[in-house]
Amino acid sequence: MNETRIGEELMSDEYYDLERRTEIKASSNRLKKKFLTWRECEIVYSLQHRKIMKLADDAGAIYRFDGSVLINREIFDLYLERYRQKPHTQSSVRKVKNRWEQIKDEG
Questions:
Q1: Three-state secondary structure string covering 20-60
Q2: Disulfide: which of 20, 54, 61, 71 matches 75 by Cβ 3.0-4.6 Å?
Q3: Does residue 56 surpass a pLDDT of 70?
């Protein structure tokens, strides 16, 4: 096994193997939970309870049984993608002048 020196640490070439890294990423996605409770959704999506429940209901991602509420993460993620905003370029963003620039232009 070859080793590469980075700083003071020795890193094996296995660390840089792209196939291995891709495989690890794919396996971690398989381990991702398919269903979340609304409390877990609050943490993952940084949204309030009412907003999560409304969006999940609109998406049809809510599963209820025995007083438990689960939200299907795949369905909810696909629904949230509908609200994705396209990026703005700097040319379309209006530049706001500070007070000194305004005084200089007026004078």
A1: HHHHHHHHHHHHCCCEEEHHHHHHHHCCCHHHHHHHHHHHC
A2: 61
A3: yes
